[in-house]
Amino acid sequence: MIDRARPAGLACAILLSAVAAAASGCGSSEQAAPPDVAPGTAPDPAATPTATGAVEPRAVTPPPGEQVLLFASDRDGDYELFRMDVDGSGQEQVTLNSSEDREPDASAATGRVAWASEDGIEILDPGSERYALSHVGRQGTGFYAPAWSPDGSAIAYVAGDEGISLAAPDGSSERLVVEGSAFSPTWSPDGLALAFLESGSGFSRTLRLLALDGSGGRELAQIAADPFATTSADWSPDGAWIAYDCFPEELDYDAEICLVPASGGEPLNLTRSPGDDFGPEWSPDGSMLAFTSVRDGNAEVYVINADGSGQARLTFDPASDTDPAWAVETGGELRTYAVDSFDDPASGWERYSDEASSAGYEEGSLVVRAGEPGWLATSVGPESIPARAAIRLDVRDTGEAADAGFGFVCGYRDLDNHYAAGIGSDGTYAILVRRGGEATILTGDGSWARSQAIEPGAAGYRIEGECRERRIVLQVDGQYVDSVTLEDGLPEGGAFGVFLETFAEGGAEVRFDEVTYSGLPRTVLPSLTP
Length: 530
Description:
By secondary structure, the protein is mainly β. The protein contains no helices and 44 strands. The strands form 10 sheets. Strands 29, 30, 31, 32, 34, 40, 41, 42 and 44 form a 9-stranded antiparallel sheet that branches. Strands 33, 35, 36, 37, 38, 39 and 43 form a 7-stranded antiparallel sheet that branches. A 4-stranded antiparallel sheet has the order 7-6-5-28, with no helix packed on it. A hairpin with a 4-residue loop joins strand 1 and strand 2 (21-22). The radius of gyration is 26 Å and the shape is elongated. Mean pLDDT is 79; it is low at 1-54, 129-134, 215-224 and 522-530.
């Protein structure tokens, strides 16, 4: 969603409208003070800002709770969401799946978090089950840049090439409010207007204002412009300022964070640093902004006070950390997944023991054994694991599974009817289906196949995968192995579990040390209509 391409040597342009006049952020010596607007109200377009050298933010009382930051990082192999405290401490993973999760936005009114994924706009309600997601948008259509309305009753987002749309959190009441190449919507604090960026000729981007009159009206007022690749914008909580990416000529067109009065006026370059700074996001109380910077050679999350002081780096991971967004935590757990370390024998996994196999809790692990050749042993998980889920298993081969396969099962009805995806300690893998007791391997040439992603004879493996409505994915130790498309789809009501299967030799044992699971969205909505 971040378009870093931009030309060099273009002249700065000033674009005027009947409602507001704004410059492109190219280093004007005069800076505008915020207009006299009460906190939480939309600015008066006719107000005339006075010249000053600094921003004077108005205090806004945020909702009760702790202000934290969300961000996207690929430190887990693909982009997932993380949270951290405002000083950079307490970093924890929020999402877990094989999709790219980017551009989070949290509703201060409801605590819900929306973000862009390959499945559309996904939503987490911290007050509900931590893996229960709803879904807005259509798969594969490039929906991104979600933005909550101030009261949390609607989401604005980019609907692919169609423009900007609004929808209720459950995906209903969709309507297209801006047609064409428009992106990065942001709401006025009173919910009566949207600011957004619009692509023009060449590399130009224009920051525009749309009054929402309840009928999807198209009354636009141009309030700022930049002839380069401006990519994001965010409206301040007091309604007075809009932060956006600018590319001042005197800094060799490096991306910077600029502020422009929402009523129009000269912009202010807030960051003024070498290296690109982009993606500004106001804190709920309006005192700070978070943004992404590559000034130190890697994409990291920074914060800065609204007056331009106190720039500080918060992330230090060698991976890319980007897309910061503020949230207010009120006690609900802010993550989409659950973790079971098998320390509690009452956590719900199937336990049994017979002559040929067994499964049970032992010393903080779920241990599965199969004592005979050609034997299948499973342990079905608790009902709290969704039928359609992302899964991560930390598993150890105790040295007794040299001729066996192990992994996860889904769509499980019984031993004779389920799907499975697993690996062997010899470096092989398979994704298969059992129907009526007959196994059919769906990958490779119909037999267990070798993969360079699987180290033969390793002491332990991290098996990751997904069971979606029509797709099963297998990854090992952070590397993609294979996937299959299910023509008939995953059966309704099937359970999730783990398995151990012996081949020519018996006497196999594996220990599952931890399982992490996350629900996956499944709702696909019909096409939008303007």
